[in-house]
Amino acid sequence: MKRLSVMLDGYGKISVDEQEVPKITDNDVLVEVHASLISPGTEMGDVKCFRDKPDPNFKKIPFGYSNAGIVLEAGKNCKRLKKGMRIASMGNKYAQHSSHNIAAQNMCVPIPDNVSFEDATFACLGATALQSIRRAELEFGENVLVAGLGIIGNFAGQLARYSGCHVIGMDLFELRKELSMKTGFDKVIDPKKEDMIKACAEFTKGRGIDCAFICLGGDGTELLKNIYKTISIAPDTHRWGRIVIPGGVQITTTFAAALGNVDLRSSARTGPGYFDPAYEQGADYPAVFVPWDTQRNLEEIVRGIAEKKLSVNPMISHRFPLAKAADACDLLIEHPDQSLGVILQPR
Predict the structure, then answer these.
(1) How many angstroms from the chain centroid is the CA of residue 342?
(2) Contacts of residue 181, Cβ cutoff 8 Å, sequence gap at least 6
(3) Domains of the chain by range and CATH?
(4) What's the start-to-end Cα distance of the chain, in Å?
(5) I need a labelling partner for 24 at 20 to 30 A (CA). Which of 182, 194, 203, 285 fits?
(6) What is the pLDDT of residues 41-69, one digit of tens each?
(7) Beta strand spans in the chain (E)
């Protein structure tokens, strides 16, 4: 069986090639893809790296890791997934930008009829944000700052609001600021135009930020210093709070007294299980010890979308046919201020 796949080479060139669909195993499903979401962060970061520093020895590969479609065939060990079922799938080996994919069963979740294929493609990035919310250990009524309002930052803000928190966001791009207000942020600022420390003090009525999320890449040293100044401060001058970092940012900082009692917490991917081959293929972790694994985080995002508690459709800025994937990637790289959620449509 043939499929069309979006391919990336060592020069950062994007093409759409015909190739054989990988063989299905007893723990996989064959998916007819109806929508695929390009990650403006991780994926486009890889493309830019190859364009800046080409690697002629890099073998062309299919890429992508978040899509949705219909199960055409299910392996005999796939008890939850059946032929004809609508599903969201994730994983860089399983949910590529292709017309068809072979997806491992624990990297898939069913989607209800009232969730579109396009909206379901956001499950992976939503689960990444949800994992950061779990790492944050938010409490009802806390004041939250989200720095970087891409898809993960937008989700982090929505989920914090969903958890009963007050949320202020910050970004340099007008489009992302507008979308964040549409999806439920209490306040959004541009730190180039507004003093973020003063804005956070006013937003929190002088109490300070309890938890911040850094949802961007690049050098974040100065950003961390400024976020630190927004965190709640005790009479002894030490600051107390948490800063959770799901973004691939690089930071140089001094700890101990220089950072007070502020926790820096890294948050990786979608939760336990992703990149464990046994788990991906169907082996479950004991729920009593690992209640929030990748699959359950995916399920919660899809449920939130279905129940209208999470809003993803406003984040879709563009749609392209699969054959125009190169144009879609160029848009995200060259005009990040004009694009965010870009959907590829294989059919």
Answers:
(1) 13
(2) 188
(3) 2-122+271-345 (3.90.180.10), 126-266 (3.40.50.720)
(4) 16
(5) 285
(6) 989 999 999 999 999 999 999 999 999 99
(7) 2-8, 14-20, 28-38, 61-62, 66-74, 86-90, 100-104, 108-110, 143-147, 166-170, 187-189, 211-214, 218-219, 240-245, 249-250, 261-266, 316-321, 341-345
CA distances from residue 171 to 146, 178, 232 in whole angstroms, order as listed: 9, 10, 22
DSSP states of 104-121: EGGGEEE--TTS-HHHHT
Q: CA-to-CA distance for 141 and 139, rounded, in angstroms? A: 6
72 φ/ψ angles, rounded to the nearest 5 degrees = -90, -30
**pTM listed for this prediction:** 0.96
Residue in this structure with the two tokens 């779990």, named with its chain if needed:
134
Which class for 72: exposed (0-12), middle (13-18), buried (19 or more C-beta within 10 A)? Answer: middle
**Tokens read off for 247:** 């973004």
Nearest to 228 by CA among 205, 202, 194, 251: 251
5-54 pLDDT, tens digit per residue, is 999 999 999 999 999 999 999 999 999 999 999 999 989 999 999 999 99
Tokens (6 digits) for 315 = 């984040």
